[in-house]
């Protein structure tokens, strides 16, 4: 079941500006709990995921980009039947907003409503789609959401809130005694593997404790949970609009060993009883959130463990997600193609390749046929240090699951160098 959210939005002739303020959650964490190295090249590539907004826009909407899309890629999308909106390149949202003469009927649709939109919310120049920033921040807080799930009777994973180092050490010991070889430590904010650290064994835990002792003398709260062997990794797309709760989609997420999102199966096969239970829990969650005053789009991450136990709320993303932006495209393709999956790949090349060269190599490598296809739906590049970094998301779709899976596996092993000359 895939539903296009545009069918629920009563926007008519309203002027819409789309803006993708990715990665803002990381700025909310007050302490640096985890060792990290900033990869500026990857940050530039991730920024270009704003391309995904185009799949949810209408022809007369305006998309605010902070990068210049590749022209060949843009022409490729048009040849694939993708209707492109108006594109406006900006360097900074606040500068753009101050310089625009905003129509009172216009609306900004951000990836996530944050405090940076307070000037828009406080004047009468335009509206901002979604919940108020404080509520959005609360729902994106992993710790707050765990408490919310427990208080409202949702099944939650084994875990403990820790207000200091001694509590953390005791909680880890308790989880290992309960049979958990691996654990995960979570801080309030971060998505796609950020804001958490997977602990594989006692030695790694001891190194983490030593790091905390060196860097952070006191901390208010974090949570440690047992790491479950995951049988299924579900995602629900909820829309709360005009007092109604809509379940737009249930998809299967593909997550790597570091909990980083790698892609989705948009047409997963689930046990009927599981689907019904999950649907009921998501609608119950949606109505609880509606009563809190939440509105707009949310993504909910959930898991089923090896024992078949459903944990409906691992975290809530009170914002648009990559899946949300693709829903109109998925809904349209699914009418003729029963199998749809996506994956992303990044690679680095000394020799620069154009999009057309990459696509030609990819077409030779994947070998699509008359009923199984692929679509490159984001194409990001960044030159640095004499090399070019690439980041691509590809949608695979068709009627033969084995062929679609084969193309996807081939994509993950793709390197255009092997096709040169």
UniProtKB/TrEMBL annotation:
Keywords from the named record: ATP-binding, Nucleotide-binding
Domain of life where this protein originates: Bacteria
Keyword ATP-binding: yes
Cell cycle among keywords: no
InterPro entries in UniProt: ATP-grasp, ATP-grasp_PylC-type
Residues covered by the ATP-grasp domain: 146-346
One Gene Ontology molecular-function label: ATP binding
Protein name as catalogued: ATP-grasp domain-containing protein
Taxonomic source organism: Paenibacillus hemerocallicola
